[in-house]
Every structure is written in C-alpha cells, then in structure tokens.
Amino acid sequence: MSGTEDLLVEPDRLAAEIDSATPPTLLDVRWRLTGPPGRDDYAVGHLPGAVFVDLDTALCGPPGHAGRHPLPDPGALQAALRAAGVRSGHPVVVYDGGDGMAAARAWWTLRWAGHRPVRLLHGGYPAWLAAGLPTTAEVPRPAPGDVEVNPGALPVLDAAAAARLAAGEGLLLDVRAAARYRGETEPIDPVAGHVPGAVNLPAPEYVADGRFPAAEVLRERFAAAGVTEGTPVGAYCGSGVTAAQAVLALHLAGRPDAALYVGSWSNWVADPDRPVATGPTPGA
C-alpha cells in the first residue's frame, strides 16, 4: 500500500518544510492544453523558491508518432532536472494550477526516472493561496542538481501492451470524458473512439478540482470499474497527462503497479491499422 504522505502534501505541511533547515526542491509545472503558457502564471507569482519546469519541452519528448506527450529523452530530462536544482535523494514537490494533471505527469515522470522522493502539492497553487501562504515573483537561481535519471522505475505500456491488457490480460482504463470514449466527439485527435476492450472511467469520478478522496473511496470507485486485486491495470487518456493522474490515484488506492500508456490515444490513432471501438461499452 502506498502511503498518502509519500504521494501528497498539504499546503500547511509544505510551508513548514520550506521553512525548515532542509526544504524540498519545488517545481512549478503549471500548464494548459490551450491558452497562455504556464510560464506566464509563474512570472506573476509562485511559491517561494519554486523553479518553473515546462511540461511540453522539459518533461516530455517532442510530439509525433509516439503521441503528443511522449516519454522524454533521458539525457535531456536529466539536464532539465539538474538545471532546476533536483538532487539525488533530495525531496521534490511539484504543483500546478489546481487540476493536478500536469503535476501528476511531473510526479510520474520523476518517479519513472528513478527519483523516489517526489510528492504533489494537493490542490496545487490555488490551495496554497487559499491557505493564505506567501508567494513571490522573484525567480530563484538554484545550484545545479546532481540527479541521475534511470528510466523504468514505473511501468509503461506501449500500444501492443495496452491492446493485450484491454483484450483480457488485465484491465485498461480510458479516463477521458465519456463522449470521447464513445466516439461521439474528438476535439483534439483525428479519430474518435477508444481502444477495443478498454473500460471508461472519466477522471471526475476519482478526482475533483485536483483533490483526491480517501483511499477507501478510491478503492471502491476503481473496484466498480473492474479493478480487482491481482489483476494488471493500466490507464490511458488523450496524450498521457490525465492518465498519469489516474496512475497517481491508483497508487493512493494501493496499486503502485499501475501502468501508464504514455502515448495514449494520440499514439494509438497514429497507426491507421489499429482497431477503434465506439459506443458506451468496451467494444470489440
């Protein structure tokens, strides 16, 4: 079972840690799918000592056949994390604009890269503001870090593995909105529908406004979708950002073995020979 204290941190607790003799490294990963870049929000105000890290260019590889947010090159990721001051074995806290998606992908990426001590600020920047805690526009100059990126510390699915999981080797969760899963609409990718055999569990059913319910509630919600003990489980979304949040929720529910289909739907439909299912059921 993964302990909540190893995955999430509340604003008041984080404030005390920042004021301690050994503060964690803070990464601001605010991001939007469309609209002004997160760096603009960071420039207006951020947590004291936080360094901005761009999800699109630092934490993910360039978009293409592998998806819109593929795995980063390990060397490039290591350079970006070191520039942000990430040190081997030293705690990191990531936060975003409140929905928790970009922060969850940052959390997942660091853990996939072998950096274990990383948590997500529960509720993100809005929760920090709501707690009346200080912010600043001052940009820190962190000392270079020495983190070593060792990929593979969290399980990853490619398209073939995702297909096998959905076909009966386990359970593949599609955490996009129900209308996208059913194939009624697709605002981003060129083809609508879902991976045949995947089960739909839209993100709002297990997280609301970037905050997760208690572990027992999460277990009940995942169980209702078919997640059973001992059955392999993976998740995908449009490009592996929302699904990373699902993997975090599964960790909170006691399933640290949950796998992420990083390429997700944007990778699946890049190959026209891959089958596509539509409708409200897993499909065939």
UniProtKB/TrEMBL annotation:
Record keyword Transferase present: yes
User: Keywords, A to Z?
Assistant: Repeat, Transferase
Among Pfam families, the record links this protein to:
Rhodanese
- Rhodanese domain spans which residues? 20-137, 166-277
The UniProt record lists the keyword Acetylation: no
**What residue range is the signal peptide?**
none
A GO molecular-function term, please? thiosulfate-cyanide sulfurtransferase activity
Tell me what this protein is called: Sulfurtransferase
